[in-house]
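Human:
Class, as today's exercise, you are to examine the entry below, and be ready to discuss the fold:
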Amino acid sequence: MKAVALTHYLPVTDPNAFLDVDLPRPAPSGRDLLVAVKAVSINPVDTKVRAPKDTVEETPRVIGYDASGVVEAVGEDVTLFKVGDEVYYAGDITRPGTNQEFHLVDERIVGVKPKSLGFAEAAALPLTTITAYEAFFDRLGIDRDGADRGQSILIVGGAGGVGSIGIQLAKAAGLVVIATASRSETESWVRDLGADHVVNHRKDMVEQVRALGFRHVDHIAIFNDMRHWAAAVELIRPQGGIVSIDATDLPMPMAGMKMKSASLHWEFMFARAMHQTPDMIEQHNLLTYVAAEVDAGRIRTTLDTVLAPINAETMRKAHALVEAGTVKGKVVVEGF
């Protein structure tokens, strides 16, 4: 089968950053699905895994952490899907990735693809959807179905992949959304997705949020990086919560959090699959829920750019776009 792989961890400008290879087609067992991959999307985690380092792989390594496709075969213990089902999912960072024609994935982290979306549109959603959903509803404890209607949330990095779906999930839950964007193009993007207010994270966020009439906000999601920690601590309400997806070595003074009895949560969407947690199936459930919301017209895809086909040259282009840090929404690569 065709695959895009790497043996050396190189700058994306290097022609050998990715290689077109032919690999054996895997066979499913247990709760695994064998998925014929139709489209993949590129996330910051892809570029971080591929980032230059001295490691050399003895055999080609396939990465990739988002896909949509069709179930080709199933393991003997599969109960949720059958051959021919259209699916979308983000995979497992501890297993071979999605940048290959046929991919094995545990059914418990796979969702039914939205019927109203094509494969490219669907591939834009899984990883970021899981991240934002878990950040809001599992980590911060916001009620998905509107019991916390009217509460405020500041989404730092609103125009990125996670922020783009996060705005929609927060609005669906009835929250007042303050999203950050730093360019006119991305400001228009987040407003179109439903943000009630927009502030610029490259300027004084505390001043801007308070100018909107908010002394504090109920929830804060840091979906870009922890340089905004001090502003987040200042803005979070007493007994409120901050969630972050950024792994950081930056100083994070905690005195302000203690004085407010505020909470800090980390979101890592691979944790359930990596640790085989008893509630792994919650990712299947949430992806299926979001697919229904998409088909009902309440949530839309965050796709912005589609490249084709899925090969080494196109993958380098896609990684370069994501590394530039100016993409709004998601970059997808479609079709082998």
Observations:
- The mean pLDDT is 97.
- Residues 2-125+271-334 form a domain with the Quinone Oxidoreductase; Chain A, domain 1 fold (CATH 3.90.180.10).
- Residues 229 and 252 are 7 Å apart (CA to CA).
- The radius of gyration is 20 Å.
